[in-house]
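Hi again,

Forgot to attach this to my earlier email, sorry! This is the prediction with zinc ion bound. I've pasted everything inline since the attachment limit keeps bouncing my files.
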Amino acid sequence: MNTPQHTLAAALHQARRIVVFTGAGMSAESGIATFRDKPDSLWAQFNTRQMATPQGWRENKQRVWAWYEGRRGAVMATQPNAGHAAIAQLAGTLQRLHGHEVQVDVVTQNVDNLHERAGSASVIHLHGSLFAPRCMACHRPGEFAPGEPDASLTELDPPRCQHCLGYLRPGVVWFGEDMPQDAFRQAEDLVDTCDAMLVVGTSGVVWPAAELPISAHNLGKFVAEINPTPSELAKYMRVQWPTSAAQGLPQLLNLLGTA
Ligand SMILES: [Zn+2]
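Structure tokens for the complex follow:
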């Protein structure tokens, strides 16, 4: 059959290395976007300059730390959806069908940990992670204070670095900051060596992340998009399947098992 999902399944059957590139739409059905829409939530009081720039941190690190701890707590209260689960099962499903090793790497713009919690083994975070704080002074990874984060606090002292006693900062990329170079380079290497790229739940407007699907297309790779509406990247896609992550990806996994 010549539907988008059948063309996509046929391409994945041929692939040994697959990159899944995800954005906010991937986590929307886990309730993370809904949280953003609540009028009384921390999100509603979001002020970009205060909460997501190095200047905001210098002005009031207690306010910034409390806000990110609230976001981390909100993510911990959600669950990976059926789309995250299907991505985590993709490599194993193809391996069982074909008897050879298949590698699936996730490259995500999301700062939540839902891919990891669903069981994906290889996840690259292009915009950092709410779960990877680091020291402002020596840049080494830090640890959270024990206990559940309290989303009701508006100010909270950041924990201190166990090495140099500097303050820990949230491990996300702020406005005016570069993307982590190691993560971006790893993602570029994966794009260079993959056979197929699956783009899920991203509008394709955040740069330089959006370069990755375009570069996959320019290298002649099979690139497909799963988005309810076509993204800015649609013209680079061999296939555009208009569906959501939590609906489309489990269907795709079923189709792979039966086709
Ligand atoms: Zn330190």
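The first strand starts at residue 17 and ends at 22. The chain is about 40% helix and 10% strand.

That should be everything now.

G.
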